DNA sequence: TCGTGGTATTTGGTATGCCAAAAATCTAAG
DNA sequence: CTTAGATTTTTGGCATACCAAATACCACGA
Protein backbone atom coordinates (compact mmCIF):
# COMPACT_ATOMS: atom_id res chain seq x y z
CA UNK A 1 0.00 0.00 0.00
CA UNK A 2 1.93 2.95 -1.33
CA UNK A 3 1.25 6.11 0.59
CA UNK A 4 -2.48 6.21 1.13
CA UNK A 5 -2.39 9.91 0.53
CA UNK A 6 -3.88 11.85 3.37
CA UNK A 7 -7.49 11.74 2.24
CA UNK A 8 -9.55 9.38 4.32
CA UNK A 9 -11.54 7.87 1.39
CA UNK A 10 -14.68 9.85 2.06
CA UNK A 11 -14.96 11.98 -1.11
CA UNK A 12 -17.81 14.08 0.11
CA UNK A 13 -15.98 15.04 3.27
CA UNK A 14 -14.97 18.62 2.63
CA UNK A 15 -11.35 19.12 3.55
CA UNK A 16 -12.07 22.69 4.55
CA UNK A 17 -12.25 21.75 8.19
CA UNK A 18 -12.11 25.38 9.12
CA UNK A 19 -11.41 26.81 12.49
CA UNK A 20 -12.83 23.93 14.43
CA UNK A 21 -10.84 24.01 17.62
CA UNK A 22 -11.18 21.70 20.54
CA UNK A 23 -14.10 22.74 22.66
CA UNK A 24 -12.98 24.55 25.75
CA UNK A 25 -12.86 21.98 28.57
CA UNK A 26 -13.75 24.51 31.26
CA UNK A 27 -10.78 24.45 33.57
CA UNK A 28 -10.96 21.85 36.28
CA UNK A 29 -11.61 22.51 39.94
CA UNK A 30 -8.00 21.68 40.56
CA UNK A 31 -6.84 24.53 38.38
CA UNK A 32 -9.49 26.87 39.66
CA UNK A 33 -8.41 26.15 43.20
CA UNK A 34 -4.79 26.65 42.20
CA UNK A 35 -5.49 30.06 40.72
CA UNK A 36 -7.70 31.11 43.59
CA UNK A 37 -5.22 30.09 46.25
CA UNK A 38 -2.30 31.58 44.41
CA UNK A 39 -4.04 34.91 44.09
CA UNK A 40 -5.08 34.84 47.72
CA UNK A 41 -1.54 34.11 48.86
CA UNK A 42 -0.07 36.86 46.70
CA UNK A 43 -2.65 39.32 47.91
CA UNK A 44 -2.20 38.74 51.59
CA UNK A 45 0.50 40.50 53.53
CA UNK A 46 2.43 37.57 54.86
CA UNK A 47 4.56 39.77 57.05
CA UNK A 48 1.73 41.44 58.90
CA UNK A 49 1.76 38.92 61.71
CA UNK A 50 4.75 37.34 63.38
CA UNK A 51 3.08 33.92 63.48
CA UNK A 52 3.25 31.82 60.34
CA UNK A 53 0.15 31.85 58.17
CA UNK A 54 -1.46 28.44 58.03
CA UNK A 55 -3.94 27.01 55.57
CA UNK A 56 -6.51 24.36 56.37
CA UNK A 57 -7.53 21.91 53.67
CA UNK A 58 -11.02 21.35 54.97
CA UNK A 59 -11.69 25.01 55.53
CA UNK A 60 -10.49 25.80 52.02
CA UNK A 61 -12.57 23.07 50.45
CA UNK A 62 -15.60 24.46 52.24
CA UNK A 63 -14.89 28.02 51.24
CA UNK A 64 -14.35 27.11 47.62
CA UNK A 65 -17.22 24.68 47.56
CA UNK A 66 -15.23 21.70 46.34
CA UNK A 67 -13.94 18.58 47.99
CA UNK A 68 -10.51 18.22 49.48
CA UNK A 69 -9.13 16.27 46.53
CA UNK A 70 -8.74 19.15 44.06
CA UNK A 71 -7.62 21.35 46.94
CA UNK A 72 -4.84 18.97 47.79
CA UNK A 73 -3.72 18.81 44.18
CA UNK A 74 -3.66 22.59 44.03
CA UNK A 75 -1.63 22.67 47.24
CA UNK A 76 0.84 20.23 45.73
CA UNK A 77 1.23 22.57 42.77
CA UNK A 78 1.70 25.62 44.97
CA UNK A 79 4.32 23.73 46.91
CA UNK A 80 6.23 23.16 43.69
CA UNK A 81 6.06 26.89 43.10
CA UNK A 82 7.51 27.48 46.52
CA UNK A 83 4.55 29.42 47.81
CA UNK A 84 3.56 26.99 50.52
CA UNK A 85 5.09 24.13 52.40
CA UNK A 86 3.08 21.34 53.90
CA UNK A 87 4.38 19.84 57.10
CA UNK A 88 3.02 16.33 57.61
CA UNK A 89 0.45 16.11 60.38
CA UNK A 90 1.04 19.74 61.17
CA UNK A 91 -0.43 21.91 58.52
CA UNK A 92 0.19 23.91 55.40
CA UNK A 93 2.22 27.02 55.92
CA UNK A 94 2.57 29.96 53.58
CA UNK A 95 6.28 30.39 52.97
CA UNK A 96 7.87 33.58 54.19
CA UNK A 97 10.99 34.58 52.34
CA UNK A 98 13.97 35.95 54.17
CA UNK A 99 15.71 39.07 53.03
CA UNK A 100 18.58 36.98 51.76
CA UNK A 101 16.23 34.92 49.65
CA UNK A 102 14.60 37.98 48.14
CA UNK A 103 17.96 39.46 47.31
CA UNK A 104 18.98 36.18 45.78
CA UNK A 105 15.88 36.11 43.63
CA UNK A 106 16.46 39.64 42.44
CA UNK A 107 19.99 38.68 41.42
CA UNK A 108 18.64 35.79 39.36
CA UNK A 109 16.15 38.18 37.86
CA UNK A 110 19.01 40.48 36.94
CA UNK A 111 20.76 37.62 35.22
CA UNK A 112 17.72 36.71 33.17
CA UNK A 113 16.84 40.26 32.27
CA UNK A 114 20.33 41.06 31.12
CA UNK A 115 20.19 38.03 28.85
CA UNK A 116 16.86 39.25 27.55
CA UNK A 117 18.43 42.62 26.79
CA UNK A 118 21.22 40.88 24.95
CA UNK A 119 18.79 38.95 22.78
CA UNK A 120 16.66 41.99 22.11
CA UNK A 121 19.52 43.90 20.57
CA UNK A 122 19.80 41.28 17.88
CA UNK A 123 16.21 40.36 17.18
CA UNK A 124 13.63 42.91 18.31
CA UNK A 125 12.13 45.46 15.98
CA UNK A 126 13.04 49.07 16.48
CA UNK A 127 9.47 50.20 16.95
CA UNK A 128 8.86 47.63 19.65
CA UNK A 129 11.91 48.83 21.54
CA UNK A 130 10.91 52.44 21.24
CA UNK A 131 7.42 51.56 22.46
CA UNK A 132 8.95 50.74 25.81
CA UNK A 133 9.17 54.46 26.48
CA UNK A 134 5.41 54.66 26.61
CA UNK A 135 5.36 53.07 30.01
CA UNK A 136 6.91 56.22 31.39
CA UNK A 137 5.25 58.82 29.24
CA UNK A 138 3.28 60.09 32.24
CA UNK A 139 6.45 60.95 34.10
CA UNK A 140 8.98 63.69 33.55
CA UNK A 141 10.68 66.68 35.16
CA UNK A 142 7.32 68.22 35.94
CA UNK A 143 5.80 64.99 37.19
CA UNK A 144 8.37 63.15 39.18
CA UNK A 145 8.08 59.41 39.79
CA UNK A 146 8.83 59.88 43.47
CA UNK A 147 5.67 61.93 43.79
CA UNK A 148 3.54 59.12 42.41
CA UNK A 149 5.26 56.09 43.81
CA UNK A 150 2.38 53.67 43.52
CA UNK A 151 1.66 54.56 39.94
CA UNK A 152 5.31 54.48 39.00
CA UNK A 153 5.73 51.11 40.64
CA UNK A 154 3.04 49.66 38.40
CA UNK A 155 4.65 51.17 35.30
CA UNK A 156 7.95 49.82 36.50
CA UNK A 157 6.74 46.24 36.69
CA UNK A 158 4.93 46.52 33.36
CA UNK A 159 8.06 47.88 31.72
CA UNK A 160 10.23 45.05 32.91
CA UNK A 161 7.73 42.45 31.81
CA UNK A 162 7.34 44.04 28.39
CA UNK A 163 11.08 44.27 28.04
CA UNK A 164 11.62 40.63 28.75
CA UNK A 165 8.76 39.67 26.48
CA UNK A 166 10.59 41.38 23.64
CA UNK A 167 13.27 38.75 23.91
CA UNK A 168 10.74 36.30 22.51
CA UNK A 169 12.12 33.76 24.91
CA UNK A 170 9.33 31.89 26.68
CA UNK A 171 11.76 30.50 29.21
CA UNK A 172 13.08 33.90 30.22
CA UNK A 173 9.54 35.25 30.41
CA UNK A 174 8.27 32.41 32.55
CA UNK A 175 11.21 32.32 34.90
CA UNK A 176 11.19 36.04 35.54
CA UNK A 177 7.45 36.07 36.03
CA UNK A 178 7.83 33.40 38.67
CA UNK A 179 10.54 35.35 40.41
CA UNK A 180 8.51 38.53 40.18
CA UNK A 181 5.59 36.90 41.91
CA UNK A 182 7.77 36.08 44.86
CA UNK A 183 9.51 39.42 44.98
CA UNK A 184 6.36 41.46 44.49
CA UNK A 185 5.19 40.58 47.95
CA UNK A 186 7.38 43.47 49.02
CA UNK A 187 6.65 45.83 46.21
CA UNK A 188 4.82 48.32 48.35
CA UNK A 189 7.74 48.39 50.71
CA UNK A 190 10.77 48.24 48.51
CA UNK A 191 10.47 48.63 44.78
CA UNK A 192 8.43 51.77 45.13
CA UNK A 193 10.57 53.47 47.72
CA UNK A 194 11.12 57.09 46.99
CA UNK A 195 14.86 57.24 47.26
CA UNK A 196 15.29 54.51 44.76
CA UNK A 197 12.55 55.66 42.45
CA UNK A 198 14.51 58.79 41.66
CA UNK A 199 17.33 56.89 40.03
CA UNK A 200 15.11 54.26 38.46
CA UNK A 201 13.66 56.24 35.58
CA UNK A 202 16.95 57.49 34.10
CA UNK A 203 18.32 53.97 34.27
CA UNK A 204 15.33 52.63 32.41
CA UNK A 205 15.73 55.21 29.69
CA UNK A 206 19.39 54.35 29.48
CA UNK A 207 18.51 50.72 28.94
CA UNK A 208 16.13 51.62 26.15
CA UNK A 209 18.77 53.77 24.47
CA UNK A 210 21.28 50.96 24.51
CA UNK A 211 18.71 48.61 23.04
CA UNK A 212 17.86 51.03 20.26
CA UNK A 213 21.54 51.45 19.51
CA UNK A 214 21.80 47.67 19.23
CA UNK A 215 24.70 47.86 21.63
CA UNK A 216 24.56 44.33 22.95
CA UNK A 217 27.20 44.61 25.63
CA UNK A 218 26.00 47.96 26.92
CA UNK A 219 22.35 46.94 26.98
CA UNK A 220 23.22 43.80 28.84
CA UNK A 221 25.33 45.70 31.33
CA UNK A 222 22.74 48.37 31.97
CA UNK A 223 19.97 45.86 32.45
CA UNK A 224 22.10 43.85 34.83
CA UNK A 225 23.38 46.79 36.82
CA UNK A 226 19.96 48.31 37.14
CA UNK A 227 18.43 45.25 38.70
CA UNK A 228 21.52 44.44 40.72
CA UNK A 229 21.12 47.94 42.08
CA UNK A 230 17.72 46.99 43.34
CA UNK A 231 19.19 43.89 44.93
CA UNK A 232 21.83 45.95 46.66
CA UNK A 233 19.21 48.40 47.83
CA UNK A 234 17.06 45.72 49.34
CA UNK A 235 20.07 44.15 50.95
CA UNK A 236 21.07 47.45 52.50
CA UNK A 237 17.69 48.86 53.46
CA UNK A 238 15.48 45.85 53.63
CA UNK A 239 16.29 44.70 57.11
CA UNK A 240 13.51 46.77 58.59
CA UNK A 241 11.00 44.85 56.51
CA UNK A 242 11.81 41.42 57.75
CA UNK A 243 10.55 41.16 61.28
CA UNK B 1 -0.80 39.99 83.25
CA UNK B 2 2.46 41.78 82.59
CA UNK B 3 4.65 39.92 80.17
CA UNK B 4 4.86 36.38 81.44
CA UNK B 5 8.52 36.30 80.45
CA UNK B 6 9.34 33.61 78.03
CA UNK B 7 10.18 30.90 80.48
CA UNK B 8 7.49 28.32 80.80
CA UNK B 9 7.81 28.01 84.59
CA UNK B 10 9.55 24.68 84.48
CA UNK B 11 12.91 25.46 86.14
CA UNK B 12 14.41 22.07 85.54
CA UNK B 13 13.86 22.20 81.80
CA UNK B 14 17.31 22.72 80.37
CA UNK B 15 17.24 25.44 77.75
CA UNK B 16 20.02 23.74 75.86
CA UNK B 17 17.63 22.14 73.45
CA UNK B 18 20.50 21.30 71.17
CA UNK B 19 20.37 19.82 67.76
CA UNK B 20 17.04 18.14 68.21
CA UNK B 21 15.62 18.19 64.75
CA UNK B 22 12.19 16.98 63.76
CA UNK B 23 12.19 13.24 63.45
CA UNK B 24 12.30 12.18 59.86
CA UNK B 25 8.68 11.67 58.78
CA UNK B 26 9.57 9.09 56.17
CA UNK B 27 8.67 10.81 52.94
CA UNK B 28 5.07 10.40 51.88
CA UNK B 29 3.82 8.24 49.04
CA UNK B 30 3.13 11.42 47.14
CA UNK B 31 6.78 12.39 47.25
CA UNK B 32 7.95 8.88 46.60
CA UNK B 33 5.72 8.70 43.55
CA UNK B 34 6.99 12.10 42.44
CA UNK B 35 10.60 11.02 42.66
CA UNK B 36 9.95 7.69 41.02
CA UNK B 37 8.02 9.17 38.13
CA UNK B 38 10.49 11.97 37.65
CA UNK B 39 13.37 9.58 37.46
CA UNK B 40 11.50 7.32 35.10
CA UNK B 41 10.67 10.20 32.81
CA UNK B 42 14.23 11.49 32.79
CA UNK B 43 15.56 8.04 32.12
CA UNK B 44 13.34 7.19 29.19
CA UNK B 45 14.23 8.32 25.71
CA UNK B 46 11.22 10.39 24.84
CA UNK B 47 12.34 10.78 21.27
CA UNK B 48 12.65 7.10 20.51
CA UNK B 49 9.12 6.80 19.21
CA UNK B 50 7.21 9.27 17.08
CA UNK B 51 4.02 8.80 19.06
CA UNK B 52 3.66 10.75 22.27
CA UNK B 53 4.42 8.86 25.45
CA UNK B 54 1.35 8.51 27.61
CA UNK B 55 1.03 7.70 31.28
CA UNK B 56 -1.89 5.89 32.86
CA UNK B 57 -2.82 6.76 36.41
CA UNK B 58 -4.27 3.40 37.26
CA UNK B 59 -1.39 1.49 35.75
CA UNK B 60 1.07 3.64 37.67
CA UNK B 61 -0.78 3.23 40.93
CA UNK B 62 -0.71 -0.51 40.43
CA UNK B 63 2.97 -0.57 39.55
CA UNK B 64 3.91 1.56 42.51
CA UNK B 65 1.53 -0.19 44.85
CA UNK B 66 -0.33 2.89 45.97
CA UNK B 67 -3.71 4.34 45.21
CA UNK B 68 -4.39 6.89 42.53
CA UNK B 69 -4.55 9.78 44.97
CA UNK B 70 -0.83 10.18 45.67
CA UNK B 71 -0.16 9.41 42.01
CA UNK B 72 -2.38 12.25 40.92
CA UNK B 73 -0.71 14.62 43.34
CA UNK B 74 2.67 13.62 41.99
CA UNK B 75 1.42 14.17 38.46
CA UNK B 76 0.22 17.63 39.42
CA UNK B 77 3.71 18.40 40.69
CA UNK B 78 5.37 17.07 37.58
CA UNK B 79 3.05 19.19 35.51
CA UNK B 80 4.24 22.25 37.38
CA UNK B 81 7.77 21.21 36.53
CA UNK B 82 6.81 21.02 32.89
CA UNK B 83 7.62 17.35 32.53
CA UNK B 84 4.10 16.17 31.75
CA UNK B 85 0.86 17.66 30.62
CA UNK B 86 -2.49 16.16 31.45
CA UNK B 87 -5.21 16.53 28.86
CA UNK B 88 -8.65 16.20 30.45
CA UNK B 89 -10.41 12.97 29.56
CA UNK B 90 -7.55 12.08 27.27
CA UNK B 91 -4.51 11.17 29.22
CA UNK B 92 -1.21 12.29 30.64
CA UNK B 93 1.45 12.95 28.08
CA UNK B 94 5.18 13.27 28.66
CA UNK B 95 6.19 16.62 27.24
CA UNK B 96 8.59 16.60 24.32
CA UNK B 97 10.65 19.73 23.96
CA UNK B 98 11.27 21.25 20.58
CA UNK B 99 14.74 22.26 19.53
CA UNK B 100 13.80 25.91 19.95
CA UNK B 101 12.74 25.25 23.53
CA UNK B 102 15.97 23.46 24.36
CA UNK B 103 18.01 26.27 22.87
CA UNK B 104 15.94 28.73 24.84
CA UNK B 105 16.59 26.84 28.05
CA UNK B 106 20.30 26.73 27.41
CA UNK B 107 20.31 30.50 26.93
CA UNK B 108 18.60 30.96 30.29
CA UNK B 109 21.15 28.62 31.76
CA UNK B 110 23.90 30.77 30.29
CA UNK B 111 22.38 33.82 31.91
CA UNK B 112 22.23 32.20 35.32
CA UNK B 113 25.68 30.68 35.13
CA UNK B 114 27.28 33.93 34.11
CA UNK B 115 25.69 35.58 37.11
CA UNK B 116 27.02 32.77 39.26
CA UNK B 117 30.50 33.40 37.87
CA UNK B 118 30.14 37.07 38.69
CA UNK B 119 29.20 36.33 42.27
CA UNK B 120 31.96 33.79 42.68
CA UNK B 121 34.66 36.31 41.84
CA UNK B 122 33.66 38.35 44.86
CA UNK B 123 32.81 35.74 47.46
CA UNK B 124 34.24 32.29 46.79
CA UNK B 125 37.43 31.07 48.40
CA UNK B 126 40.45 30.58 46.22
CA UNK B 127 40.86 26.94 47.12
CA UNK B 128 37.25 26.17 46.19
CA UNK B 129 37.74 27.77 42.81
CA UNK B 130 40.94 25.90 42.17
CA UNK B 131 39.26 22.68 43.17
CA UNK B 132 37.11 22.99 40.08
CA UNK B 133 40.08 21.82 38.04
CA UNK B 134 39.83 18.41 39.62
CA UNK B 135 36.83 17.57 37.53
CA UNK B 136 39.09 17.47 34.52
CA UNK B 137 42.22 16.02 36.05
CA UNK B 138 41.74 12.81 34.10
CA UNK B 139 41.92 14.62 30.80
CA UNK B 140 44.82 16.23 28.99
CA UNK B 141 46.86 16.21 25.81
CA UNK B 142 47.51 12.50 26.19
CA UNK B 143 43.95 11.66 27.12
CA UNK B 144 41.62 13.74 25.02
CA UNK B 145 38.04 14.39 26.06
CA UNK B 146 36.79 13.52 22.60
CA UNK B 147 38.11 10.01 23.08
CA UNK B 148 36.09 9.51 26.23
CA UNK B 149 32.95 11.41 25.45
CA UNK B 150 30.68 9.74 27.93
CA UNK B 151 33.08 10.18 30.80
CA UNK B 152 33.83 13.75 29.86
CA UNK B 153 30.15 14.52 29.62
CA UNK B 154 29.67 13.44 33.22
CA UNK B 155 32.60 15.57 34.36
CA UNK B 156 31.17 18.41 32.36
CA UNK B 157 27.82 18.36 34.12
CA UNK B 158 29.45 17.93 37.51
CA UNK B 159 31.73 20.87 36.84
CA UNK B 160 28.91 23.19 35.94
CA UNK B 161 26.90 22.19 38.96
CA UNK B 162 29.86 22.64 41.27
CA UNK B 163 30.61 25.99 39.71
CA UNK B 164 27.13 27.32 40.26
CA UNK B 165 27.07 25.94 43.77
CA UNK B 166 30.11 28.08 44.54
CA UNK B 167 27.96 31.14 44.06
CA UNK B 168 26.20 30.18 47.26
CA UNK B 169 22.98 31.27 45.66
CA UNK B 170 20.22 28.73 46.25
CA UNK B 171 18.05 30.33 43.62
CA UNK B 172 20.70 30.07 40.92
CA UNK B 173 21.42 26.51 41.93
CA UNK B 174 17.81 25.43 41.87
CA UNK B 175 16.91 27.16 38.65
CA UNK B 176 19.88 25.80 36.76
CA UNK B 177 19.29 22.33 38.09
CA UNK B 178 15.74 22.46 36.82
CA UNK B 179 16.91 23.60 33.42
CA UNK B 180 19.61 20.96 33.38
CA UNK B 181 17.07 18.23 33.96
CA UNK B 182 15.17 19.27 30.88
CA UNK B 183 18.22 19.74 28.72
CA UNK B 184 19.91 16.57 29.83
CA UNK B 185 17.37 14.50 27.99
CA UNK B 186 19.60 15.12 25.00
CA UNK B 187 22.94 14.82 26.68
CA UNK B 188 23.91 11.62 24.94
CA UNK B 189 23.15 13.26 21.64
CA UNK B 190 24.37 16.79 22.01
CA UNK B 191 26.46 17.80 24.99
CA UNK B 192 28.81 14.91 24.46
CA UNK B 193 29.33 15.36 20.76
CA UNK B 194 32.91 15.05 19.76
CA UNK B 195 33.30 18.16 17.71
CA UNK B 196 32.13 20.31 20.57
CA UNK B 197 33.96 18.42 23.25
CA UNK B 198 37.24 19.48 21.76
CA UNK B 199 36.64 23.16 22.47
CA UNK B 200 34.87 22.61 25.74
CA UNK B 201 37.81 21.80 27.97
CA UNK B 202 39.93 24.87 27.14
CA UNK B 203 36.90 27.07 27.69
CA UNK B 204 36.30 25.56 31.09
CA UNK B 205 39.89 26.14 32.09
CA UNK B 206 39.60 29.69 30.87
CA UNK B 207 36.60 30.21 33.08
CA UNK B 208 38.46 28.91 36.10
CA UNK B 209 41.40 31.19 35.39
CA UNK B 210 39.16 34.24 35.23
CA UNK B 211 37.54 33.25 38.49
CA UNK B 212 40.88 32.80 40.19
CA UNK B 213 41.98 36.18 38.91
CA UNK B 214 38.80 37.66 40.42
CA UNK B 215 38.14 39.25 37.08
CA UNK B 216 34.40 39.70 37.41
CA UNK B 217 33.67 40.91 33.92
CA UNK B 218 35.87 38.37 32.22
CA UNK B 219 34.57 35.47 34.26
CA UNK B 220 31.03 36.47 33.53
CA UNK B 221 31.76 36.81 29.84
CA UNK B 222 33.53 33.49 29.56
CA UNK B 223 30.81 31.66 31.40
CA UNK B 224 28.14 33.24 29.26
CA UNK B 225 29.91 32.73 25.97
CA UNK B 226 30.75 29.14 26.75
CA UNK B 227 27.16 28.15 27.39
CA UNK B 228 25.82 30.35 24.60
CA UNK B 229 28.21 28.42 22.41
CA UNK B 230 26.44 25.25 23.36
CA UNK B 231 23.11 26.89 22.54
CA UNK B 232 24.39 27.94 19.14
CA UNK B 233 25.73 24.46 18.54
CA UNK B 234 22.42 22.82 19.35
CA UNK B 235 20.62 25.33 17.21
CA UNK B 236 22.88 24.62 14.29
CA UNK B 237 23.33 20.88 14.58
CA UNK B 238 20.39 19.78 16.62
CA UNK B 239 17.80 19.53 13.90
CA UNK B 240 18.67 15.94 13.26
CA UNK B 241 17.76 15.09 16.80
CA UNK B 242 14.23 16.35 16.76
CA UNK B 243 12.20 14.00 14.62
C1' DT C 1 -17.74 -3.16 1.46
C1' DC C 2 -18.65 0.78 3.88
C1' DG C 3 -20.61 3.73 7.05
C1' DT C 4 -23.78 4.71 10.69
C1' DG C 5 -25.51 4.44 15.26
C1' DG C 6 -25.39 2.68 19.54
C1' DT C 7 -23.06 0.37 23.40
C1' DA C 8 -19.21 -0.97 26.32
C1' DT C 9 -14.84 0.60 27.96
C1' DT C 10 -11.31 3.67 29.24
C1' DT C 11 -9.65 7.79 31.57
C1' DG C 12 -9.15 11.76 34.20
C1' DG C 13 -12.04 14.51 37.77
C1' DT C 14 -14.22 14.67 42.08
C1' DA C 15 -16.37 13.39 46.48
C1' DT C 16 -16.04 10.69 50.74
C1' DG C 17 -14.53 8.01 54.39
C1' DC C 18 -11.15 6.26 57.34
C1' DC C 19 -6.53 6.20 59.39
C1' DA C 20 -2.63 7.59 62.30
C1' DA C 21 0.21 11.21 63.97
C1' DA C 22 0.22 15.36 66.48
C1' DA C 23 -1.80 18.75 69.18
C1' DA C 24 -5.08 20.40 72.31
C1' DT C 25 -7.80 19.52 76.16
C1' DC C 26 -9.13 17.39 80.18
C1' DT C 27 -8.40 14.83 84.52
C1' DA C 28 -6.67 13.34 88.56
C1' DA C 29 -2.74 12.61 91.52
C1' DG C 30 0.83 15.08 94.26
C1' DC D 1 -1.37 25.01 91.80
C1' DT D 2 1.52 21.90 89.15
C1' DT D 3 2.05 18.23 86.21
C1' DA D 4 2.03 13.55 84.43
C1' DG D 5 -1.15 10.90 81.94
C1' DA D 6 -5.20 9.88 79.45
C1' DT D 7 -8.57 11.42 76.12
C1' DT D 8 -10.50 14.08 72.54
C1' DT D 9 -9.86 16.78 68.49
C1' DT D 10 -7.50 18.33 64.61
C1' DT D 11 -4.93 17.56 60.38
C1' DG D 12 -2.79 15.75 56.49
C1' DG D 13 -2.19 11.04 53.99
C1' DC D 14 -4.31 7.59 51.56
C1' DA D 15 -7.79 4.39 49.53
C1' DT D 16 -12.04 3.82 47.23
C1' DA D 17 -16.29 4.65 44.66
C1' DC D 18 -18.69 7.02 41.27
C1' DC D 19 -19.24 10.28 37.43
C1' DA D 20 -19.01 12.19 32.78
C1' DA D 21 -16.45 12.86 28.76
C1' DA D 22 -13.93 10.65 25.17
C1' DT D 23 -12.90 6.64 22.85
C1' DA D 24 -13.07 2.05 21.14
C1' DC D 25 -15.75 -1.49 19.59
C1' DC D 26 -19.44 -3.84 17.28
C1' DA D 27 -23.51 -4.99 14.94
C1' DC D 28 -26.74 -3.82 11.62
C1' DG D 29 -28.26 -2.01 7.24
C1' DA D 30 -27.68 0.25 2.65
In short:
The structure is a homodimer of 243-residue chains. With 243 residues, chain A is mainly alpha-helical.
The named CATH superfamily of the largest domain in chain A = GntR ligand-binding domain-like
Low-confidence stretches of chain A: 1-18
Major interchain interface with per-chain residue totals: A-B, 32 and 32 residues
Oligomer: homodimer
> In the CATH hierarchy, what is the architecture of the largest domain in chain A at level 2?
Up-down Bundle
Briefly note the CATH topology name of the largest domain in chain A. Four Helix Bundle (Hemerythrin (Met), subunit A)
Q: What is the CATH domain class of the largest domain in chain A?
A: Mainly Alpha
Give the termini separation of chain A. 75 Å
Outline of chain A? elongated
Tell me the number of strands of chain A: 3
Structural class of chain A: mainly alpha
What would your notes on this structure say?
2 copies of one chain form a homodimer. Chain A has 243 residues and is mainly α. Chain A folds into 2 domains: 29-94, Orthogonal Bundle (Arc Repressor Mutant, subunit A); 99-241, Up-down Bundle (Four Helix Bundle (Hemerythrin (Met), subunit A)), CATH 1.20.120.530. Chain A contains 9 helices and 3 strands. Chain A has a 3-stranded antiparallel β-sheet. In chain A, α1 packs across α3 (68-81). Chain A is elongated. In chain A, 33% of the residues are buried. The interface between A and B is medium-sized, with 32 and 32 residues. Chain A binds a DNA duplex (30 and 30 nucleotides) through residues 9-10, 25, 28-30, 56-58, 61, 66-70, 72-73, 86-92.
Amino acid sequence: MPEPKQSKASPVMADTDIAIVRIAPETSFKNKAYEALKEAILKMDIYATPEPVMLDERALSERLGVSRTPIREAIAMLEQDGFVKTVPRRGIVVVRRSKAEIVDMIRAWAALESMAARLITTTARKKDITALRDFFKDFGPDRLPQDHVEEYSKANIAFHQALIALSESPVLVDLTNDLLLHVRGYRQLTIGRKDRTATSLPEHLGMIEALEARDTELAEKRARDHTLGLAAYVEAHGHELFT
